[in-house]
Structure to design on (585 residues):
C-alpha cells in the first residue's frame, strides 16, 4: 500500500484532540508498546467496549484493558480485546521506505484477527492470532510489506473479529522495521501512481480489444476506455466490468507483450478482487513465443484466478501441451476463517526458478510444480521468457454466466505489480526474511544453492517436497500446524537463514525436533560465531513424534544476521534427526 495520499478527513478533524502518550512520538523504525496508545480518551484515542480498565494496571483512568506481562522484558500488555475496539498511536518515521510490521501476541485458544491502519489506510490486511497455549505465551506475527513516507503518522490498531475464546487476543507490542529483502533486485514494477482517470502506462502495457468469447464462451467485450480501465489517483489501477445489455458487458484486459518480459524470479501483484456470480478476475502470464508455437505450447502461468461464486478461493495453475483448458496442473488456496478476497487487498505471487514454480497467497505457500508434475509424455514449457496479463472477464465455461444474484459494475483494484530477479548469491527465501523474535520454518532456508545457502551430502531432495530442486531433504510433517520438516540430516551438513532482529536483546533459541532413536547433535551459529553450544536431539519415539529443545540465552543486536544450523554428530540412527522449525524469543 502506498501512503502518499492525503489523510482522510476523519484524521484531520481529530488530530487536534490527540497527543502521544510519551514525551515524543514513537520512532519508526522501532518498537511501540501497546499500552502507550495516544492520550485523548474514549472515542478519540481509543474505543473500548467498556469504560473500565479491566487489568487495573498502568493507565487507570483509561478504558483500555492493561495488565502486567510475563513476556521477555516485562512491562504491560493490552488484553480483553474485542471486535470493534481500536487504539491510536502517533509515530514519527525517520526515513521514507518499505516496512514490515511485527506484532507480539498471545491467546489461550484460537484467537481472532485485527489490522493496522496508517493515516486511515489499511496497510497490513487481516492479521490472525493463533492459539499460543496461554494468555502469556507469546509469539510474533508479521505483516506484508508496505510503504511509509518520512514524517509523522497515526497508526490505528483495529480489532476485526473475535476468536473461539470470545476475544481477539493479547497484544504486547508492535515493531515496524525496514522490510528485509535479502539480496533480491527489483527488476520492474508498476505502482500505478498516475493521476485519476489516467490510462495504464503505455511504456508497460498494451490493450487486448474485442470479444468473441476467447475460446471460453466469455460474455465481455474488452475496450481501452477509461470507463473500463484507469488509474484512480490513489495508487491503484482499477479494471471495471460494466453491463451494457441483457447479456453483454464491457471490461478490460491489458498485457506487457513487447514492453516487459520476465524469466525467473518473484512475480507479485497486490489486488482486491470483485465477487459476484460470473466475475472472473485474473493475473497471469503467457510465453513470449506464443506467436510461433501457439497456445498452450507457449505455456501459461495463472498466478491469481478467481471465480465469483468462490469469494475465498484462489486458483493457481500451469497450462501446457497435454494439460490445459479444463485439466491444467492446478491447486487452490482458501483464505482462513471465512475471509474474502473482495473485502481487502491480498498478494498473489510465484517464486519461479528453472524447472520449478511455487505459488503463494500473502506469502503462504500452497503449490509447487516441477517437470515431474507433468503428465507422462508431455513437456515442461516454463524455462523461457513470459509476459504479464491482467483482466476481468465476465461469464464463460469456468465461472458460469451472471444470474439474477449478480450485480454490476464490478471492479478489480491493483495496488502494484512487481517482479524481482533471482538473487545471484545468498538471499532470503522468497524475498521474505524472517523477523525475530519469532519462528523460522526449517524448510525456508536461504536461496543460493549448494555451498552457498546450505551443504547437503547428496544432490537430491530425498523427501521430494516443497522445494524439489534444492538438495536439502524436505518432507511433509504431521506435527501440529502441518507444513514441512527437514530430515535425513547428517553430520557435516548445514543450512543458513538470513533473519532480521527487530530489537537488540537477549534471545533464547528453541528447536522443534524428532528422532526415531537417540539423535545426534547440532549447534546454531550467528554470523559465523557459535551461539548455542551443542544441542542434543533426544529419542522422541518416531521421526514424526516431536519435542522442543531450548538453548541458553545469548545476545543478538537489532538488524540483519545470518544464522547457520550446523550438524555436528549423528545419533545411533545414523542421522542427526529431523527439524521442523526453530524460534528466537
Amino acid at each position: 500500500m502506498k501512503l502518499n495520499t492525503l489523510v482522510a478527513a476523519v484524521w484531520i478533524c481529530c488530530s487536534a484532540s490527540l497527543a502521544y502518550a510519551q514525551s515524543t512520538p514513537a520512532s519508526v523504525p522501532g518498537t511501540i508498546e501497546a499500552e502507550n496508545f495516544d492520550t485523548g480518551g474514549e472515542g478519540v484515542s481509543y474505543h473500548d467496549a467498556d469504560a473500565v480498565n479491566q487489568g487495573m494496571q498502568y493507565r487507570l483512568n483509561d478504558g483500555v484493558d492493561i495488565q502486567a506481562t510475563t513476556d521477555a522484558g516485562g512491562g504491560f500488555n493490552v488484553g480483553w480485546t474485542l471486535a470493534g475496539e481500536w487504539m491510536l498511536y502517533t509515530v514519527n518515521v525517520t526515513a521514507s521506505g518499505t516496512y514490515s510490521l511485527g506484532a507480539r501476541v498471545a491467546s489461550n485458544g484460537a484467537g481472532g484477527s485485527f489490522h493496522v491502519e496508517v493515516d486511515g489506510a489499511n496497510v497490513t490486511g487481516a492479521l490472525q492470532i493463533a492459539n499460543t497455549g496461554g494468555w502469556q505465551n507469546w509469539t510474533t506475527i508479521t505483516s506484508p510489506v508496505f510503504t511509509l513516507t518520512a514524517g509523522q503518522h497515526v497508526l490505528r490498531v483495529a480489532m476485526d473479529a473475535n476468536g473461539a475464546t470470545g476475544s481477539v487476543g493479547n497484544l504486547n507490542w508492535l515493531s515496524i522495521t525496514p522490510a528485509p529483502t535479502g539480496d533480491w533486485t527489483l527488476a520492474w514494477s508498476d505502482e500505478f501512481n498516475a493521476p485519476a482517470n489516467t490510462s495504464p502506462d503505455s511504456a508497460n502495457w498494451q490493450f487486448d480489444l474485442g470479444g468473441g468469447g476467447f475460446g471460453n464462451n466469455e460474455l465481455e467485450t474488452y475496450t481501452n476506455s477509461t470507463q473500463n480501465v484507469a488509474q484512480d489517483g490513489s495508487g491503484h489501477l482499477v479494471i471495471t466490468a460494466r453491463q451494457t445489455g441483457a447479456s453483454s458487458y464491457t471490461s478490460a484486459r491489458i498485457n506487457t507483450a513487447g514492453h516487459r518480459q520476465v524469466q525467473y524470479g518473484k512475480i507479485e501483484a497486490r489486488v482486491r478482487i470483485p465477487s459476484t456470480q460470473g466475475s472472473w478476475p485474473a493475473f497471469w502470464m503467457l510465453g513470449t513465443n506464443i506467436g510461433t508455437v501457439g497456445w498452450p505450447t507457449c505455456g501459461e502461468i495463472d498466478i491469481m484466478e478467481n471465480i465469483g461464486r468462490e469469494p475465498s478461493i484462489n486458483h493457481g495453475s500451469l497450462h501446457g501441451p497435454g494439460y490445459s483448458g479444463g485439466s491444467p496442473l492446478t491447486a487452490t488456496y482458501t483464505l482462513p476463517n471465512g475471509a474474502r478476497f473482495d473485502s481487502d487487498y491480498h498478494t498473489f505471487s510465484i517464486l519461479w526458478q528453472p524447472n520449478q514454480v511455487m505459488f503463494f497467497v500473502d506469502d503462504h505457500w500452497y503449490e509447487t510444480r516441477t517437470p515431474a508434475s507433468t503428465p507422462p509424455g508431455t513437456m515442461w514449457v516454463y524455462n523461457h521468457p513470459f509476459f504479464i496479463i491482467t483482466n476481468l472477464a465476465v461469464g464463460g465455461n469456468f465461472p458460469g454466466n451472471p444470474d439474477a444474484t449478480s450485480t454490476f459494475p464490478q471492479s478489480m483494484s491493483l495496488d502494484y505489480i512487481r517482479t524481482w530477479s533471482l538473487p545471484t548469491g545468498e538471499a532470503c527465501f522468497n524475498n521474505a526474511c524472517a523477523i525475530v523474535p519469532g519462528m523460522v520454518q526449517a524448510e525456508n532456508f536461504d536461496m543460493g544453492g549448494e555451498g552457498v545457502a546450505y551443504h547437503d551430502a547428496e544432490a537430491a531432495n530425498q523427501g521430494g517436497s516443497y522445494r524439489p530442486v534444492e538438495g536439502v531433504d524436505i518432507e511433509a510433517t504431521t506435527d501440529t500446524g502441518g507444513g514441512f520438516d527437514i530430515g535425513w540430516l547428517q553430520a557435516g551438513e548445514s543450512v543458513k537463514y538470513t533473519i532480521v532482529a527487530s530489537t537488540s536483546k537477549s534471545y533464547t533459541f528453541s528447536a522443534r525436533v524428532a528422532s526415531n532413536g537417540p539423535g545426534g547433535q547440532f549447534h546454531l551459529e550467528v554470523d559465523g560465531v557459535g551461539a548455542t553450544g551443542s544441542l542434543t536431539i533426544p529419542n522422541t519415539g518416531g521421526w514424526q513424534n516431536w519435542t522442543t529443545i531450548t538453548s541458553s540465552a545469548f545476545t543478538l543486536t537489532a538488524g540483519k544476521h545470518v544464522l547457520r544450523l550446523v550438524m555436528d554428530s549423528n545419533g545411533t540412527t545414523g542421522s542427526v534427526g529431523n527439524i521442523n522449525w526453530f524460534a528466537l524469543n
Q: What stands out?
A: The chain has two helices and 44 strands. Residues 9-14 form the longest helix (6 residues).
